[in-house]
Specification:
The chain is mainly beta. The chain is built from 5 helices and 39 strands.
Length: 582
Amino acid sequence: MTFHGRYPGCAALAVAVQIAVTVAVSPARAQVPTQPQDAALNAEAAMNDWPTYHGTYKSYHYSGLDQINTGNVKNLEVAWMHFPERATRGLQSTPLALDGVLYYSGSYSRLYALDGATGKTIWAYAPELDEELVAKQTHSPYNRGIAIGHGNLYVGTVDGRLIAVNLKTGKPVWDTKLLDSKKVTVGFTGAPLVVKDMVIIGAQGGEWTGRGPIFGVDGKTGQKKWEFFTVAGTEEAMKTWGGDSWRTGGGGGWMPGTYDPETNSVWWGTANPAPLYDWSGADWKKSGPRPGDNLYTTSVIALDPDTGKLKFYHQELPHDAWDFDSSVGEFVMIERGGKKLVVHANKSGYVFVYDRSNAKVENVWPLVKNINFVKSIDPKTGELIGRRDLSEGKVDPPLCPAIAGGISWNSGAYSPKNGLFYRIGQEWCMELTVEKTTPILEPMAQLNLGATFKIVAPPDGPARGHLSARDPVTGAKKWEVAYKQPPLASVLATAGNLVFVPDAEGIVHAYNADTGEELWSRNNGIGHNAGIISYMAGGKQYVAVPAGWGSLVADEFVALYGEPFKSMSKNTGALIVYALRQ
């Protein structure tokens, strides 16, 4: 259902999300190019579209549109809203836009194509899922994004499938089963990535007793072309898992990576190993449940998109014992001092800068203050200095950052206009008791945490968040905005010299990209936990913000902060689209 017109965001959403909604389906109106992924190659151009999850292959989360700018952003108002039929765990996806049509996914991998100017429904698609299986999964049933290519829209499902639907009609084209989700108890929640002929997608599964596969699927036929295991995917990696621990090693690449056309490399981040917390202490190379470095978990890897073969990698945290995935974080492709670099944020709160040709570490810098799992990370080599490895029992003092990370899976933004990188950091720690566990594989694989925990405030003050504007290579900070609660949504930068941040309480903020001065804000009435984009339709610039609350991290906000999160619904949501007042 779409609401069009000038509605105060808070009031409209609070009322409308209670409505039982049905979506009318009508024929598509737009002519769709067969290779929209070509548009993803250029991040600097003033683009009308948002054709891939990170905006473009350069992962800037930046719109080249400047119709909305620092001079007129105060005139932004709600243009239209769309409400999905099911919004269990809120909305967590990043929309796409192409040729004036906006596409997005909701819970249960439901898809919507909407007129970008009016919000009118063009088509809607709801795949049939194994609801009994979905109910048994920890992360279900949200979906975090989609991909466009070859005239299709692609979406993964939590019961282990990758589906293509026709971009113009919403009719299914193919439906490929990639995972035995009844056995491994994981599926797909992250967005696919279209690269040339391939659709690439990674499975959930950091804490599950699997091997975290990433798949390459023919975009036209749905045929699986290759599969790469993030756990022991090569002979070299197999040697880094003591005994048979690789069989239940976890891993996964649950958020989308990106593509570097110059080297024909797909960069992807991988998840933590299982069990998540290891009780071996300092003897982790030889004892405990998974002795060794545990390649290629908590790593950035570069794959050949045509074959799925590993080209090069860097393991950001060897033998990750803290759940600080590398699957979070975009891969920002920039050039500096004659070098081609890629910037990647790790869940630990550190940001890694690599040589784009071989993943050689160029720098490492901390985004957050409260870090005690290591003393530091060598900025020239990436070596962990002063590891804090955990033994069985209570961990004292509390571990920082918390399991939710110093950096979460929401994306930052980079502005090629001023060269600044905008990233949300999270300041919190956790009380933790490490417990010995045995992997459970039958009748279904089970979550293997190896600990109980509670998120608490850090030593230097309350649990909180911040947005900082930094040099992406050196980490030098230009400005910072503080938040009482960490925002869990992605950031958007635009050529209008703006930075948009949807926060946890429900407010969307617009800041001056150079100074951090707040220029505009509106209350959407419910927390944000998704991606924000900008696009052009009918000659007009729009900003689209999915609103809806209820992720695993969001669940912790009730104990940490009380209201409004104690009373905030977790199973409602809306896509709210803004434009300049006429």
